[in-house]
Amino acid sequence: MRSFRIELVESSFAKGGSLVTGEVWFSIDGVDFPSRNWNDFAVTILGWWVEAAISLAAGEEATFGFMDGPWLVEAKPLPNQAAELVFIDDHSPSPTIVATRSLPQVEIRNEIRRAAALVISVCVSGGWHTQELDLLRERTAVLTP
């Protein structure tokens, strides 16, 4: 069992206008973040997460955000191609750290690439073509293992 996953519920995906929503969340050591079955703009946030992973690979700090709610994952590069992920609930004046985990960056990139590929596949199967989907596809191709 992997300790870090991006969970997606394919049957929850729907297209409204030019936006695709669906259930997408992080699972880290048994903690669902922001929560199990979190519904958000899947194509949009996966695009952000791909960009964040590219920045992290370049040695920069990055943020994996969500469209709905003040939830975020701050990522800081560490030696030996690792990264520290800090899962934050920023609802109050004092943010709450929900979980912290250090992982190899390759594991983070592979999981984001897997999730992006699944989102792309669901959209293609549904005949949902959007500019955001094209951008997600292009940026995911740049995300190296």
Characterization of the model:
With 145 residues, the protein is of the alpha+beta class. Helices cover 34% and strands 39% of the residues. It has three helices and eight strands. Strands 1, 2, 3 and 4 form a four-stranded antiparallel beta sheet that branches.
**Which structural class should the secondary elements be placed in?**
alpha+beta
Low-confidence runs: none
Overall residue-averaged pLDDT value: 93
Shape: globular
What is the count of helical runs?
Answer: 3
Instruction: Give the total of domains.
Output: 1
Properties at a glance:
3 helices, alpha+beta, 145 residues, four-stranded antiparallel sheet
Concise synopsis of the structure shown:
The protein is α+β, with helices and mostly antiparallel strands and 145 residues long. The protein has helices at 42-57, 105-125, 131-142, and strands spanning 4-16, 19-28, 31-33, 39-40, 62-65, 71-78, 82-89, 96-104.
Topology of helices and strands:
Layout: E1 4-16, E2 19-28, E3 31-33, E4 39-40, H1 42-57, E5 62-65, E6 71-78, E7 82-89, E8 96-104, H2 105-125, H3 131-142
